Structure to design on (954 residues):
């Protein structure tokens, strides 16, 4: 049962479901991925994108319809979950309601036939690791959500699994607890160095925790890259949308200078310079992140006059909408104090106007 | 982004191994197929294969023989008005009592005991209570409303009263469950929008519980239609209250004409299906889509802020109504302790002697042994079959799930007389009639669905990811069963077992139809004692009935203790059929 490994390989893992009318529905299509020992990989995507399906296939709770899963040279996709020896943290905690914290955490060890004294020692150590020593004999319903999730984490790490699977472990917690538990997860990963696959729909969580992020949508992989890259260089307009590029604008290219990769974009009265992300035709879509637009003037960037249409103040920063030439509304985050109706200039560095082929945009 | 919505609608299973699927359903399906569906077909087949003559000979005989044909209108004349009266009384009362009553437990007990005890003892009690020397007669004369003794027993009136008395509790509970399942927030929203009490009833409560009303009427009709023991005990079974169930029974048991019995059973079933279809058709024609949406919508937790206490009038009617049944059972109790009781309010002298007399007169020792064995065996078998089936049905979301649950509900909702006669005929053919196992198998038929329906609401709230977690942490399917499911389901299984025990103990018709003298249970012995009056002292008969009632009451109190009624209501709230489930769990032969 001890599958310590150098790499976990998913080869073309596909999972189809039949709905109640018998129609097939592909929840996960052709996922290929290699996870190195000790790596923290986040599967990121909106709900229904197949990320939980992928996790359940790795854990053994679902069998792939096609493809295979390997731990080094051992094929594991037909091995039942109890024989894979992975740890898992569930979205709704899934603590056994009729067992105390101690028995919950010790469950995996007693299933492995570990001696009573050893279980006791390791459970205590695991509870100490999540700062839950004081609650050993409570039942799950006597704990708060954050405490329950820490017990769930302790239950997963106590068996010292080669791989920990986490299925949206923070989504049932309130904002403050979420931040706290997130740091906790990060600390535990740093200390124990266990390979972790983490499923989330929250891009901030994925960026903060993961070594690599896998972005999924409708069962397909859109991009696999380190956090910085998926955020700064999204591979497609869909990824850009998901990463919070809230300005998605259609343009025609007027002039391109392939040497620099710069394009002149034209839409009505608005003209911008952008950077091509891929070979494009004349119809393109540009993605601009609200954080990449600044209020003020800058000679080196696209400099656009406009009028402020709305301001949402959120402490330190404001989300504003600026109406520029051609009636285009640009969404901007800024620390400048501005008021609706004010005339301003906004500027966008050409390198941050990401240009994609228009066909991607439905 | 339609993907998430789609996933939710279609309800994919989260994991592959969540249900053991068809394998675990097989025993329950086999019970339904061989002991419920097949007997129906068998009954029809024997009805069209008479020993002599053409295949429709039995049906021609039924139509042309006045003795037989007359039972159909007689039965309809009893069942239709009785059902209308039951629903007519129960609906306003259920509306008045829709809130959590201060006397909730007592109310539920008072309603459930007569249902569980069944029509035999209720009819026996009414025999004394309504009889010419009973309390009703005495009371009416004391109030100068009657000049002499009244003769309601062995008469149409007595049977109607018995049918109403034993039908009311179930219909009341079903209607109340529907009314309670209305989201209190809807009523409050209506109130903030200016709807008065009547308008709230008219626009929210009424559309939401219309379907409950239809269900209640149909339930009450099919049971009234197949009334058997009440008509025999309280009516004149050879004369004006000769009902169709009696005719079927006579054909099978007094003339051994199983072909004719199958014919009458088929006609009974057809008549019930016809009336139910008619009612459903009329209701569909007149119902609005909005109303259906309301009663289909998932139901919120019962909301105490929208409750009100029942008014004085409603409380009085309720107390008087339940008082009828209490007095009827009280008359049995009083008589069982009476030395001699003739035409006075209470006996002049009391005695305990009837109990030992009854014990020896009716040879109760073997009856108790058989009853215990039957109840124990039925409980074990139906739990063993029902628990896995309930698990599969609760965990899977198939297209056929609703249909499967509906099919499982059928043996509970259908009166045993309807399928009992074909079943008994079939058992006669294979030589099971009169044997212990015949009685056990007959009782398993309604018991398995009961276990399934009780347990589904216990299983559904258990998050499947708990089982997934156990598997992830190294538990094999067997270990999941032992360490996770068994402890979490223990209370549900206990409730199901107790309810099966109550139901089997009180299941008169099925046991009566298949039992022999060596395999009869207590309730059949009670019926035998009652219908054989003249041979034994009535006090001795009532002593047997009292012993039976005490056993039922003990078990019912135990069941209600095990699951407080309000807890039960909460655990089934999410399913549209939950409203009915909660009530059917307590009910057995229902309305007679």
């Amino acid at each position: 049962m001890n599958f310590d490994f150098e790499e976990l390989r998913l080869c073309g893992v596909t999972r189809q479901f039949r709905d109640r009318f018998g129609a097939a529905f592909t929840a996960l299509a052709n996922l290929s991925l290699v996870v190195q020992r000790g790596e923290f990989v986040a599967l990121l995507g909106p709900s229904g994108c197949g990320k939980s399906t992928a996790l359940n296939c790795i854990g053994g709770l679902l069998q792939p319809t096609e493809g295979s899963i390997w731990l080094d040279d051992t094929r594991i996709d037909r091995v039942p979950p109890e024989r894979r020896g992975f740890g898992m943290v569930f979205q709704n905690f899934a603590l056994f309601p009729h067992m105390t914290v101690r028995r919950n955490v010790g469950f995996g060890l007693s299933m492995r036939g570990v001696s009573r004294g050893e279980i006791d020692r390791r459970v205590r150590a695991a509870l100490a690791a999540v700062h839950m020593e004081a609650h050993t004999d409570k039942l799950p319903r006597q704990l708060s959500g954050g405490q329950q999730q820490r017990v769930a984490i302790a239950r997963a790490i106590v068996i010292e699994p080669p791989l920990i699977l986490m299925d949206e472990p923070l989504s049932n917690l309130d904002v403050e607890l979420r931040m706290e538990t997130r740091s906790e997860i990060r600390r535990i990963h740093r200390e124990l160095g266990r390979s972790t696959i983490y499923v989330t729909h929250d891009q901030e969580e994925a960026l903060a925790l993961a070594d690599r992020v896998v972005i999924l949508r409708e069962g397909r992989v859109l991009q696999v890259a380190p956090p910085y890259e998926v955020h700064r260089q999204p591979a497609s307009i869909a990824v850009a949308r998901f990463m919070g590029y809230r300005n998605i604008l259609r343009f025609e290219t007027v002039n391109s200078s392939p040497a620099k990769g710069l394009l002149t974009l034209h839409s009505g009265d608005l003209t911008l310079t952008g950077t091509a992300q891929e070979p494009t035709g004349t119809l393109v879509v540009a993605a601009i992140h609200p954080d990449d637009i600044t209020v003020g003037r800058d000679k080196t960037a696209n400099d656009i006059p406009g009028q402020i249409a709305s301001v949402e103040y959120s402490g330190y920063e404001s989300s504003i909408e600026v109406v520029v030439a051609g009636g285009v509304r640009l969404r901007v985050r800024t620390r400048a104090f501005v008021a609706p109706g004010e005339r301003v200039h906004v500027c966008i560095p050409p390198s941050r106007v990401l240009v994609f082929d228009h066909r991607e945009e439905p | 982004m339609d993907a998430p919505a789609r996933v939710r609608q279609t309800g994919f299973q989260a994991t592959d191994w969540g249900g053991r699927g068809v394998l675990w359903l097989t025993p329950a399906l086999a019970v339904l197929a061989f002991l419920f569906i097949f007997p129906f077909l068998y009954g029809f087949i024997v009805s069209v294969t008479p020993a002599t003559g053409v295949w429709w000979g039995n049906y021609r005989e039924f139509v042309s023989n006045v003795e037989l044909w007359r039972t159909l209108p007689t039965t309809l004349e009893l069942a239709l008005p009785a059902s209308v009266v039951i629903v007519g009384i129960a609906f306003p009362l259920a509306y008045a009592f829709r809130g959590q009553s201060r006397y909730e437990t007592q109310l539920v007990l008072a309603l459930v005991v007569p249902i569980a005890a069944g029509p035999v003892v209720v009819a026996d009690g009414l025999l004394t209570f309504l009889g010419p020397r009973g309390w009703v007669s005495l009371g009416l004369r004391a109030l100068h409303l009657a000049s002499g003794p009244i003769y309601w027993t062995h008469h149409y009136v007595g049977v109607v009263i018995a049918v109403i008395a034993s039908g009311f509790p179930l219909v009341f509970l079903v209607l109340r469950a529907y009314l309670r399942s209305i989201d209190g927030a809807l009523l409050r929203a209506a109130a903030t929008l200016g709807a008065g009490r009547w308008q709230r009833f008219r626009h929210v409560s009424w559309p939401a519980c219309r379907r409950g009303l239809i269900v209640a009427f149909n339930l009450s009709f099919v049971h009234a239609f197949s009334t058997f023991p009440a008509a025999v005990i309280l009516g004149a079974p050879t004369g004006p209250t000769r009902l169709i169930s009696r005719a079927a029974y006579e054909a099978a048991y007094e003339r051994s004409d199983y072909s004719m019995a199958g014919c009458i059973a088929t006609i009974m079933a057809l008549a019930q299906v016809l009336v139910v279809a008619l009612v459903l058709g009329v209701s569909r024609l007149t119902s609005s889509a909005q109303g259906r949406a309301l009663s289909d919508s998932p139901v919120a937790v019962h909301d105490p802020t929208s409750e009100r206490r029942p008014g004085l009038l409603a409380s009085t009617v309720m107390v008087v109504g339940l008082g009828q049944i209490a007095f009827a059972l009280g008359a049995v109790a009083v008589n069982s302790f009476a030395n001699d009781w003739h035409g006075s309010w209470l006996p002049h002298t009391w005695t305990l002697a009837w109990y030992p007399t009854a014990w020896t007169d009716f040879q109760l020792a073997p009856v108790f042994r058989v009853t215990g064995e039957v109840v124990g065996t039925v409980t074990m078998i139906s739990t063993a079959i029902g628990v896995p089936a309930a698990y599969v049905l609760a965990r899977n979301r198939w297209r056929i799930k609703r249909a499967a649950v509906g099919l499982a509900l059928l043996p509970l909702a259908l009166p045993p007389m309807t399928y009992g006669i074909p079943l008994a005929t079939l058992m006669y053919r294979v030589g099971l009639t009169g044997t212990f196992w015949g009685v056990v198998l007959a009782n398993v038929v309604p018991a398995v669905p009961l276990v399934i329906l009780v347990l589904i609401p216990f299983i559904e709230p258990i998050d499947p990811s708990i089982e997934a977690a156990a598997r992830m942490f190294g538990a094999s399917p067997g270990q999941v069963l032992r360490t996770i499911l068994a402890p979490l389901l223990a209370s549900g299984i206990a409730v199901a077992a107790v309810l099966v025990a109550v139901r089997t103990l009180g299941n008169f018709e099925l046991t009566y139809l298949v039992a022999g003298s060596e395999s009869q249970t207590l309730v059949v012995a009670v019926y035998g004692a009652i219908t054989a009056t003249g041979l034994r002292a009535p006090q001795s008969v009532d002593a047997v009935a009292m012993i039976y009632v005490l056993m039922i009451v003990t078990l019912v109190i135990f069941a209600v203790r095990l699951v407080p009624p309000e807890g039960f209501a909460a655990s089934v709230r999410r399913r549209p059929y939950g409203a009915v489930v909660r009530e059917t769990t307590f009910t057995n032969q229902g309305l007679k």
Notes: Chain A touches chain B at residues 1, 17, 19-22, 25, 27, 46-49, 56, 59-63, 80-83, 85-88, 90-92, 94-98, 107-108, 111-112, 155, 159, 165, 218 (CB under 8 Å). The radius of gyration of chain A is 24 Å. Chain A has a mean pLDDT of 88. The longest helix of chain A spans residues 175-192.
